[in-house]
Request: fold
Amino acid sequence: MKIDLSIILPTFNEMKLDILPRILSSFEEEDSFEFIVVDRMSEDETIAYVKSHSLFQKYPDKLKILQTSSNERGKRLLEGCKIADGRIILLHHPRSFLEREGIQSLMQKKENFFWGGYTHRFDWSSPFLRFTSWYSNHIRADLRKIFYLDHCIFVSRDLLLKIEFPDSPIFEDTILSMRLNKICRPVRLASLSTTSSIRFRKNGILYQALLNQVMKLGFFLGVPLPKLNIFYEKSLELNSKYKEMFGK
Reply:
């Protein structure tokens, strides 16, 4: 049977949050799909939970699981794309969940060449995060035509086959957007992609916001992506140690 939608979900120790159950539950009323979990050797019950979920008890043949030691999200998405059979590919952020009507409207799209993402919002209401989502939707996505993965990027299979998927340790979503833009303009669906604010809450809004801007500057200045990735991970680690030391 022809598959309308391939959902590719990169995972790693997802049970510490409550997002994974919401992600899977969003697809319970669909039938023409496959779900590809590309897992970074999770040490918790992530894979066991996915396998036991009612969605795959009902449709066991719709689940594909890949496990890899790579800590690079772009590589995991690439591996998922290699085995995807759907007419539409949905790159699903592991800390975002979608509205059911948004999934249904995506599966109804019949064009051969299209791509885009959903309307972003955070699960925590604060003036700064509301502004961040507004900027992400109306400036970065609508004007600059760049979608980050937390918009849950979708792309028709025919279009994806015309480009080289970025094998990148970081900013793979930006590079993917730039390559797709050369062929056609994206569309932003009005349905929401609600994203966890865990990094802002854990690291502090100011620290995480400044770090994000430093990373973007480094990308556009041409700093090698492996170095940017190492810098990002070390910055988060140092901030975590600082908070533990000083109780902040």
Notes: The longest strand covers residues 187-195. The CA atoms of residues 170 and 225 lie 6 Å apart.
